[in-house]
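Hi everyone, sorry if this is the wrong subforum. Our group has a chain we'd like a structural model of before ordering constructs, and none of us has done structure prediction before. Sequence below.
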Amino acid sequence: MFFFNDYVTTYLERDVRNLTQVGNLTTFKKFLVAVASRNGEVLNYNSICEGVGIDATTAKRWISILEASDIIYLLEPYFNSKLKRCTKSPKIIFLDLGLCSYLCGWNSGENIMNSTVSGHYLEAFVISELIKNKRNNLQDLNYNIYYYRDRDGKEIDLIISLDNVIYPFEIKKTANPQKSMISNFQVLQNKNLNVGNGGLLCFYPTIIPLDENNKSYPISVIF
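Answer:
Right subforum, don't worry. Here is the predicted structure as tokens:
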């Protein structure tokens, strides 16, 4: 934890000042904590502004700072004109979950995994690893990643787009995969979309079929 304390201090005092003028570093750190507490959630500027006491213009500028310095990644929602009522706001994904945990006051991974935010952390972990894999293998891994959510509350945690084919995945903290866990994939059917085989990423140790098109995969397949 001392490492992250020093890192945050260095980041605030050096990198933030170099990127842009932030008048109040204490308020910026409060903002950083507010964003970390929303890891894996849809970005809501109003909620952040109310919690930190800043205006929307400042919040948007500071979010851009976090994105530019690779603290966060904004996971864009999947959009297609054939799909109606889709959300247009990105999700906040912390690229360093150790830093995110420190900012939120967590002292161990075990405590996180036993908490109500464990699903968001697992989802952010998978997304962040896919982002890193792509960045490190640009010539071989030319995919794009999204999430899906509509106004009816139906959500798909991860959509991988490759060669004009979309592959839907759910990310669950379970070792008991069920077909019902991928029921939201139905929103992609009968829309003349090119949907490939997807599935469930979870803690079951081997690959097993869930239906004729989708399988359950151990999370280790992303490494």
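For your construct planning: The CA atoms of residues 132 and 138 lie 10 Å apart. The mean pLDDT is 90.
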